[in-house]
Amino acid sequence: DRIPGDNPPKGALLNYYLPTKPKGDLTLEILDDKGTLVQKLSSKKSEIDMDEEAPDVPWSIFKPTVLPKEEGINRVAWNLEMQGPTIIPGAKNDAGVPYRGPLVLPGTYTLKLLVDGKTLAQKVEVKMDPRIKTPRSDLEDAHKLALNMRDDVTKLSSVARFT
∠ CA(135), CA(103), CA(68), 5° rounding? Predict the structure, then answer.
């Protein structure tokens, strides 16, 4: 898939071993230190359908992460994003990628891989970029605003669907 010399995927590279190909779909739940679900990835192809030929498609095509489920060692990159808002299917979008959620704050996150009725757990630490000198309190304020905006888009989308 990658061309030699490409930059590696952004985010946390997660490796997992499957002794045999699973019968069902895989799910990876990512939880914060309070046990709140921040992201959920699956081996199912996403229902989000990006028409790459549409005139208003953003310059960066959104490609949801799909977990590989092949026998042996598998690798996936979590882009450190939280779940995005629920949007109105097929709604026109003039700018940006509305499916994307805000980035997580630095901290420890629990990864739960659900495969064929078993749950495998591991922790991952997201560290602050050492070049960034922004105080933690400012990061938390910006993160809270981003979450409020995401939740507002979800509320507006649910109202628009039923009117």
Answer: 145
